[in-house]
Known about the structure:
Structural class: alpha/beta
Low-confidence stretches: none
Distance between the termini: 72 Å
Strand content: 15-25%
Strand order of the largest sheet: 4-3-5-12-6
Amino acid sequence: MHLDLRHLRTIAAIHEHGGLGRAAEVLNLTQSALSHQLKAMEAQAGVPLVVRRARPLRLTAAGLRLLRTAEAVLPLIANAEAEFRDVEKGRAGRLHVAMECHACFDWLLPVMDRFRRNWPDVDIDIRAGLAFQALPALVRETADLVITSDPEPLEGITYQPLFDYAPTLVVPAGHPLVAKGYAEAADFADLTLIHYPMDRARLDIFSHLLTPAKVEPAALREVEQTAVALMLVAAGRGVTVMPDWVVRREAANPELAFLPMTRTGLRRRMYAALRTEALALPYMAHFLRLARTDSLQLQSSD
């Protein structure tokens, strides 16, 4: 017997309503059409599916076996159809976030946590493994949103501004640069620079200061964790550059000093990159609102 959803819905309706008349109404068929359909099903099966003498109609042993299949399959189909409707209306979907900002974990995780509580049917993930190739992943649709400070013109990709920040030099208290009041590229020629394990092109200190000035630090040291980097600076093992909103929490630390980059200071902007059509998704719009709200709190936390 060749089964399709129509057969399963028919046998379930007949069992539930005990007759062709009411079952036909539920299935939006005439009673005659449903009767012909039932006969065609029985012809395919080669056995009766209902006991016609019974009132209300009862299913035969073969009909009950078909009913068990209907009871297993139809709820799955109904759930899938509901999910498709939710996706179409923007209530469900996927939000896989990739980052080109290593320091953004501390800021992003609370945003994602609040987002998931509001949108439980959206599949969320943070794609840390795509950190160095995040924008290509967005184009390939293996990521849905990228946190970046370096927008690149890409077809079909839009950039939504989140917040501005200032890359800030962190040095041990009493460091000679404290008296100067700021740092410039030439100062790094004699310094050990502690930095996140990222491509130089994605680090503000290189892309917007050292590389244009053709200056290389005396030594480099990669550190994964912000707290570890700050501890090493306090111990006199080097200096580091972090966004102002990251180091603001350490403003009262007597072992550290914080200096602007260049006399006038560097200013950068963080963006959320996403595919242009995703702007119409309600859950995406809500995520952007949450991200901007949290970023405002970061900037006003001092």
